[in-house]
Amino acid sequence: MVVKVYGPAYASPKRVLLCLVEKEIDFETVPVDLIAGENLTPDYLQLQPFGSLPVIQDGDYILFESRAIIRYYAEKYKTQGTDLLGKTLEDQGLVNQWLEVEAHNYHPPLINLVLHIMFSPHFGIVRNEQVIKESEEKLAKVLDVYEDRLSKSKYLAGDFFSLADLSHIPFTSYLVGPVGKEYMIKERKHVSAWWDDISSRPSWLKVLEICK
Amino acid sequence: MVVKVYGPIQAACPQRVLACLFEFGVDFELITVDLDSNEHKQPDFLQKQPFGQVPVVEDGEFRLFESRAIIRYYATKYGDKNRNLYGTTLEEKALVDQWLEVEAHHFNDMVYTIVLQKLVIPKMGGRTDFDLVHNCEKKLEQVFDIYEQRLSKNNYLAGNWFTLADLSHLPGIRYLMNECELGHLVRDRKKVNLWWDDISNRPAWKKVMQMFNGQG
Q: PANTHER family annotated for this entry (chain B) (predicted)?
């Protein structure tokens, strides 16, 4: 019985798909149409009471929150596929640190840009130019810190590709694509090199292929 | 060499770390960072935490920031002292991570906004956006309804033992119950209320509160 991943069309579930591909774990996907409100049906809310994507079903085991799911599979299959956690306890500490940075500093301004530019007027979002401007400014400051970090370290947590880098891929792909702000990445030499590296990984190309 | 924790005792994120260190009996030294005078945005602090946020810990040569990364690190490092805090199987651990993520994304953002609007902005001479506060309160009602359902099936969020997921809520709920005057969110819900009374009476949290009240 393979792992079922709900909501592959969207970015957060793609974090999970990326991890599963890197770890060479078989899976199947179950579509969930957010615009049609399929995440708010009683059936879906039984699995994920907050109505967010993704959720996974692995036999009887149900887990939600993409960053919890990727931590689980990265550890459960530590010796298979790419090592996404690092070798020491301290390595893992740094992976978690940069995963938290992505969640609390990088993601919030970026999700604003995604919602206002890509998804309005759906989900009750009214496009607001002030929110877009402020979110871009916040994201720019975060990217400046990343530029400094990546001038000293090949990847965020150290010299190895980890869950921390992986977690950035789906939404950054929106940023350089449909959100139309590729310059935010390209204008920063080390961030740009890092993005070119992580977005050309076979796992990401495979995820894009699966979700076409 | 004791663990150095940088941050003010009044702030939620350092409290999260201290609660965890007390749970594991890890000795530490708290080095205050004065947020009011913008100490966290000065070059010396930015060297330690480039986003200018508290807390950051220094454990010998090892430096780590982001409170939820720090508590995961110590719970793993000292797991032998208390296996249940971060799960005894990978599946249990993942449920702890799941509810830690729920706290971080569904709960924390609302509390942070309410504290900013009701406490921080007026202190800086600005005006509270009461519509925004009301919206956050409504969202928190929905979150706590889900917690009520969850806690009617399990004693704690991730299962039947106290874990990092419950611990992570302590500072935020304390703010809601006190300065934010939104205690009804907890008190109106039978299971959430029992859970709060249980977790807030843990010796480790009481030690954090002693420090907070200037007695520790």
A: GLUTATHIONE S-TRANSFERASE F12, GLUTATHIONE S-TRANSFERASE RHO
